Amino acid sequence: GHYGLMDAAEAAGILLAPPTEREPDAAYAALHAHGPILQVSAPLYLVSGYAAVDRALRDPAMETFDAAQLEVAWPGWREYRAVALFADSMLRANPPHHTRQRRLASGVFTARRVAALRAVVAEQVDVLLGELTAYGNGVDLVGRLAYPLPIAVITALLGVPVEDRGKFRRLAEALTGVLEMHWTEADRVRADAAADELIEYFGHLVELRRAQPADDLVTALAAAHDADGERLTADELLANLALLLVAGFETTTNLIGNAVVLLLDHPAYADKLRDDAELATAYVEEVLRIDSPVQLTTRRVARAAEVGGVTVPAGAELVLLLGAANRDPDRFAKPDVFDPDRAGVSPLSFGAGAHYCLGAPLARMEAQVALPALLRRFPDLALAERPKRRARMNLRGWRELPVTLTR
Ligand code: HEM
């Protein structure tokens, strides 16, 4: 609709306002027309250019908002127990703490462990697809596939007993609100209660696994130490377990949901993917680019630096618009066109640099396994009605995905 009619300030207003169901495309296009970076206020900048976002993510002068910075920016933040929980995780740590936490976590969250999960994912997909028909011809694919799959996979990986999966879905959903820029008092109360419950749960599970080790991530992370004998503190251990749960859940749900809608909107491509599951790799990269499940992240400028041709001062706050960077016309020809045959996509959907998503290989694998399997099982799969977005700014996905399985 409004392409060309909106100016950059208006775009910033839309992006920073409480979220609605609207698509951000027109606002992103307006930002690109303005340039790679836009100053919104004295401390605040929106960064939309691909090269600028990529460089900022890799620049050691840019720090994540850690406990010390939260203390300055938001006195009283520790009362928000859901925020405080993640403050001890690697996502909210800068060097040297980040380096140590990340090294310990990568040491147990290995490519081998992810590869070994492929069979678990395939089996779960099979079970979930088999169950779909039990609900009749019309089902919600978010509720019946895109939600339960990542929860099953992450709980299996962590070593959470199957009977506790339902609880985890509820807790993860309540905590995910913290990743948004706007949340209500009700969201906060729910998230804080979930944080308490999760800490207690993981505290208990860690004790169990210390007494009786199992082949799972809780056991491995609790025992992790590197050559210098460095370990995670008790708080860091719980924070990172909670982070793995929350970071790996709704994001992957949205990747799968977004991918299904793009497939159903491009039936010729769906036919190709059904015949050749190898195409799933390229397909998932293009979905990540054009409909990024995570639309933004933030950084604080620790030392004055150059971003997109502008000098940003120490203390400035950057909103790095990953979703906009993925639509940068200077980086991608016809950025708003879905084209899985593009070469060298490299979307910024998983971030870049030191905090690059630890779970990227797992999320990719889940989508690469689930989508061709879905198409093969239900060749006549179709949207039953136009789905609606969740009213969110950062975690982009469909609220429900009503489909018919057969004609
Ligand atoms: C970090 C996106 C799935 C675990 C990140 C970041 C992004 C991201 C953008 C960087 C944040 C920043 O730099 O500020 C996504 C997307 C996913 C996904 C789009 C799904 C499509 C997962 C999964 C897991 C996971 C499945 C784990 C099981 C993490 C962790 C970090 C992270 C632990 C923090 C890394 C660090 O701070 O060093 N993710 N993620 N993510 N993600 Fe993911």
TrEMBL record:
Gene3D superfamilies: Cytochrome P450. Keywords: Heme, Iron, Metal-binding, Monooxygenase, Oxidoreductase. Pfam families: p450. One of its GO terms (biological process) is antibiotic biosynthetic process. One of its GO terms (molecular function) is monooxygenase activity. The keyword Calcium does not apply. The keyword Translocase does not apply. PANTHER family: CYTOCHROME P450 YJIB-RELATED (PTHR46696:SF1), P450, PUTATIVE (EUROFUNG)-RELATED (PTHR46696). Belongs to the cytochrome P450 family. This is Cytochrome P450. It comes from Paractinoplanes tereljensis.
